[in-house]
Amino acid sequence: MTIRLTDAELARLLGIVPQEPPSRARRGPNAESAIQTAIVEALRYVGCWVLRLNAGAIRAGSRPITLAPAGTPDLLVVAPGGRIVFLEVKTSTGRLSAAQRAMHAELTRLGATVAVVRSVEEALAVVGMREEG
Length: 133
Known about the structure:
Number of helices: 4
Structural class: alpha+beta
Shape: globular
Helix content: 25-40%
Oligomer: single chain
Largest sheet: 4 strands, mixed
CATH class of the domain at 47-55 and 69-126: Alpha Beta
Strand order of the largest sheet: 2-5-6-7
Order of helices and strands: HEHEEEEEHEH
Distance between the termini: 25 Å
Number of strands: 7
């Protein structure tokens, strides 16, 4: 039996409270988090290994925990065959921050594949997969 929890549910169970709640986050089916969840599920469905890379800091009780550096892409994807891709998920109107542009440039300089995606279809295309019907 598999139990699926959202990030918020898991954080609540672990007693982890975000340091700064996202004040500009959009809500609804087109919110970045909803797009990201759909992308993660689709990539896993076609056989990719996907890791969410959360940037910033959180608190576990009184203890601060530093996550990935600012600007780190949202997802690290390993596709069947070993292709590794970093994906930054944005809404149709979302733009990269200065920290994201700098991190993407650095990762690209190091030879990594980094892409901004706005839909499941874009994510599947970037990693060289297609959704099987």
